[in-house]
Amino acid sequence: MRRSKSIENMAGKVVLITGASSGIGEHLAYEYAKRGARLALADRREDHLPAVADKARGLGSPDAIVLPADVSILEHCNRLVNETFNHFGQLDHLVNNAGVLQAGSFEDWTQGQFSKLVSIVDINFWGSVYCTHFSLPHLRKSKGRIVVISSCATWFSAPKFGFYNASKAALTCFFETLRAELGSDIGITIVNPGVIESEMTRSSQFLSLVRSNLLPSKSTEGCTKAIVDSACRGDRCLTEPAWFRFGFWLRVFCPELLEKLFQLMATKKNPAGTSIKDD
Prior knowledge:
Helices cover 49% and strands 15% of the residues. The chain is an alpha/beta fold. The longest helix has 29 residues. The chain is globular. The relative contact order is 0.16.
């Protein structure tokens, strides 16, 4: 769904990206860099951030700074937004990308493992909420945009990813509500990626099975170009790859068929807590 036919020129504008050290976040940095944007790159895994910033500068970003931060911590989010504004003097796009995934059947979780489940919601949902809260005054001033990396899991809720699916559904619902509250001053683009080649999907045994046997994946580079194109058009939402929307219509018109598919997927063994990775 598109709001405007005009394309936003990102040259010289400031983009804050969370979860920027790898995967979708890393390649979003490169895509914005090609368009001349100045970048603030945040991640709790800081080792790779300087290399991402260096490559972004080489691709055309006039300035790229690194901001080690854990978005599940309120004070970290306040700090990274303040440091971005203090360095650049403005904020035009906030890209809420940081996220983690944990696989395992709900029945198999032990009491000691539930802290990992809490961290999924803390990072995937609250991290985006916190960063958005502190960014709103700056985005309102610039008439900027929030880009939310949600997931097709909001309607294509594969088994063994219950807490990931729930965190992304909450994320989408929150930002749809916020869009109504903010009006036209700040744009919101909600992105629903399907199966994308990234560190997260390569590291998950179950997603690797889905990717190789059931659903074709899309390259990270192709996905992130589509995301930035969509944000610069002012789209309200994007599903990438587009054919993944079939899951939504399957859920609406053939829920029993979708349930059977999920039951088949659920028969694949993957012990609780086998993987937790950033986007």
